[in-house]
Amino acid sequence: LALVVIALGVSFALRNSRLGRAWIALREDEVAAVAMGVPAVKTKLLAYGTGAAFGGMSGAFLGSFNNTVNADQFQFYFSILILGMVILGGLGSIWGVVLGAILLTYINFYFIPDVINTVPSKLGLDFDTTQITFAIYGFLLVTMMIIRPEGLIPERRRKQELHDESEDALVAQAP
């Protein structure tokens, strides 16, 4: 938990810093950011280095926690799980990603094996629902993209892009 608190603190500090604003500017419109004086290559390398630092810190923690680190621990399934956490929570939203991580961890370790796994046996079917976890995640992500494309807790800027109230008012007033 201490590592999570440190990571959240650093993420919030970076987001509100000059570097964080440069990252956002490059993400939104790279040409305009460069025209305003943001050094694109340096800023992108800092983003890469920061991500590597977070990954290295979490890898060191995982290695000390499990007493070993090998390639078999990191399968494609894990990458899909992490991507699902980010998409479910909301791109660019720190608290959204935290909520997405909590929800998908709950779904992965409790809901699918303990709740949904009992349904096929009650219907007289003989299969393990943990084998269709990818299908459950895919259904969840497609449903999220249709119902709430900005995520559960959207970043303010992303929410305004997807639901621009002034644009809705103009459409309503049009003859």
Model description:
With 175 residues, the protein is an all-alpha fold. It is 74% helix and 0% strand. It is built from ten helices and no strands. It has helices spanning 2-15, 18-28, 30-35, 40-66, 76-89, 94-115, 119-122, 133-147, 156-162, 165-173. Helix 5 (76-89) packs parallel to helix 8 (133-147). The chain is globular and about 65 Å long. The termini are far apart. 11% of the residues are buried. The mean pLDDT is 84.
Oligomer: single chain
Largest sheet: none
Give the proportion of residues in helices: over 70%
Q: Could you spell the SSE succession in H and E letters?
A: HHHHHHHHHH
Low-confidence stretches: none
* Total strand segments: 0
- The best one-word shape is globular
Helices, by number, come to 10
Coarse structural class: mainly alpha
Distance between the termini: 56 Å
Percent of residues in beta strands?
Answer: under 5%
For the residues shown, what is the average pLDDT? Answer: 84
What would you report as the Rg, rounded to the nearest angstrom? 20 Å
